[in-house]
Amino acid sequence: MPLRVRLTLWYGTVLALVLIVFSIMLYAITARNLRDTVDESLEDTATTAVRLLETNGFLPLIDEEVLLSQFPELTRIDKFFQIFSPSGTITIRSPNIKEHEVPLSRTALDAAFAGKSIYESAKYPKEPPLRLISMPIMYRGNLLYIVQVGTSMESVGETLHRFLILVLVAIPIALSVSLAGGWFLAGRALRPVDRITLAAQRIAAGDLSQRLSIPVAYDEIGRLAATFNNMIGRLDASFRQIRQFTSDASHELRTPLTVMKGETDLVLRKSRPLEDYKAVLESNLEEIDRMTRIVDELLFLSRADMGEVKVESMPVVLQSLVEDVHRQAKLLGQERNVEVVLGTITPVIVQGDDLRLRELLLNLVENAMKYSNPGGKVEISLLRDGQEARLSVTDHGIGIAPADQKKIFQRFFRTDVARAHTKKGTGLGLAICAWIADLHKGRVEVKSDLGQGSTFTVVLPLVTLPA
Amino acid sequence: MRVLVLEDETKVGCFIQRALEEESYAVDLCEDGAKGLEMALATDYDLLVVDVMLPGMSGLDVLKNIRRERIQTPVLILSAQSQIDQRVKGLDAGADDYLTKPFAIDELLARVRALLRRGATESPGVLQVDDLMLNPATREVARGGQRIELTLKEYALLEYLMRHTGRVLTRPMISEHVWNQDFDTFTNVIDVYVNYLRNKIDRGRTKKLIHTIRGSGYMLKAD
């Protein structure tokens, strides 16, 4: 069932219940009040009658005409009255009751003997009900007479009847008007939701560039639309990132594939000297190594993204790590005719994973050698700056243009200069370095001038050893 | 037929160059977009093979610049991007064809042939002058039904002459279309190769096809 129908039905049901309960209560209270008013008036009359009788002495009450001549007030009342003897027989009755026989009930007689007034309702067929009060007249503890005053409940019944009809007519009208209003309001409130749904369907169909138009009023719907837009924006960005990454990755893998396929294809087109085949196989091997490196690094990064890379957290003595890497790099440097030297080395201890930090430094040093010119120099230094360790690798190689300095940590990004300088890079090394530094709550800073060289600095928080 | 290859991946550029050279094309290779544009503007190439991702200037920008200079040389785009929108972008930038990496050498060569055919005003698959026939697809040459074996350079020279039958071709024109940038203009290599061709095509026949235009160059024609 649509939300609009459900809302309207709920609303209608609750309203109907409220109206019915309210009407019933109102009816009961009105009926009660009306009866109380009648009772009060009966009591007043009875009390007046009793007082009159008392003040005038208790003459033997034989004849109503005598009584009425003595108490003309009694004729003016809109009620009838009867005076019973203690035996329950009627002594006197008012003229307006002539056509009725209203005997004294047993309960009334008992109450009278107990000296108490009592209210009663009496019903006769085809007549409006009567309301009666029976009030005893006592003299020195003995019951002399019982005065009964009564009145018809006709007008009360009519009032209640009119009230009932009014309620029975008014409730359905009020209900249907409210339902129509509720239907309209629910529709109005839900229309933006429909619009959002339509837009969301379009977006779900794959067009993440779509946005919802946010209603002018910044209400619940407006906030929903804004939240939704925000979410789509983030999804869009992350999809774009993934698409970019996939496209970059496939491009990086396509290049070695192109080389392998092209060279193999070419050499097989006709018979050639053995050296040609050998050259192609050697070249293919290089490309296979390159692909392996890319795949390994991609795997590492994707595992890192998923949080599956285990990282130790132990105190690491950075100066000895630097010395180890320096020894290793010096040998690599000799092959490439690049000198690797140690600069200022300050003893520093950080908290982290020795292997990963070693990988980070080696990566930076290898990069520095890769982008150095033959005969160049690479310097590693370790400093302590306040609560931070600063591990720097400086080269005098090709350098990085200012515009590219932020991008070099992006996956697969390589500057044109770097691409032209060497085919060996995968474009993933610095992304891995940044990831490792991040893992140690540190960062990698870069300072570089195009053609002058670069300094990469790993900044790591110092561990505060217990004194 | 002289081809300029713009490809920054050295190995890819090298095997494309070699494959084309083995088909007797004269090939220049360049790894930088901006430098490649200069070369394309300076020399009248018969075909450009351009990679999309180039340092200096992207392949598409090179292409747009060339077209802006009203150079109508056929261009074959090479790209690692296989998505349709990338191909569309390349073709809309003025490329005549698009090849996705990795590719088969045969396909590359077939597309190059197709593009060169399109570049010529009349474009039969097989070139014919009198009873001399040249098939660019099989690189077979025959005169009067008799097959003639040619070296790569001889073939390239003959193809160029046959594609421009009846026109005077100067030595610089020949060197520009048949040899690559390493050609040394101060030698008589062209005359030597024309002589080789004459020996194989015209020798012993009454009807000579290759004519020397004194002071200008050479011409191939039936009468």
Word description of this protein:
The complex is a heterodimer of chains A (about 475) and B (about 220). Chain A has helices at about 5-55, 65-70, 105-115, 155-205, 220-265, 275-305, 320-335, 355-370, 415-420, 430-440; strands at about 80-85, 90-95, 120, 130-140, 140-150, 315, 340-345, 350, 375-385, 390-395, 445-450, 455-460. With about 475 residues, chain A is α+β, with helices and mostly antiparallel strands. Chain A has 3 domains: about 5-160, Beta-Lactamase; about 220-305, Helix Hairpins, CATH 1.10.287; about 315-460, Heat Shock Protein 90. In chain A, the strands form 3 sheets. A 5-stranded antiparallel beta sheet of chain A has the order 2-1-5-4-3, with helices on both faces. In chain A, a hairpin with a 5-residue loop joins strand 1 and strand 2. With about 220 residues, chain B is α/β, with parallel strands linked by helices. Chain B has 8 helices and 12 strands. Chain B has helices at about 10-20, 35-40, 60-70, 85-90, 105-120, 150-165, 170-180, 190-200, and strands at about 1-5, 25-30, 45-50, 75-80, 95-100, 125-130, 130-135, 140-145, 145-150, 170, 210-215, 215-220. In chain B, the strands form 3 sheets. Chain B has a 5-stranded parallel beta sheet, with helices on both faces. In chain B, strands 6-7-8-9 form a 4-stranded antiparallel beta sheet, with helices on one face. In chain B, helix 3 links the parallel strand 3 and strand 4. In chain B, helix 2 runs parallel beside helix 3 and helix 6 (about 150-165) crosses helix 8. Chain B starts with a strand and ends with a strand. At the A-B interface, helix 5 and helix 9 of A face helix 1 of B.
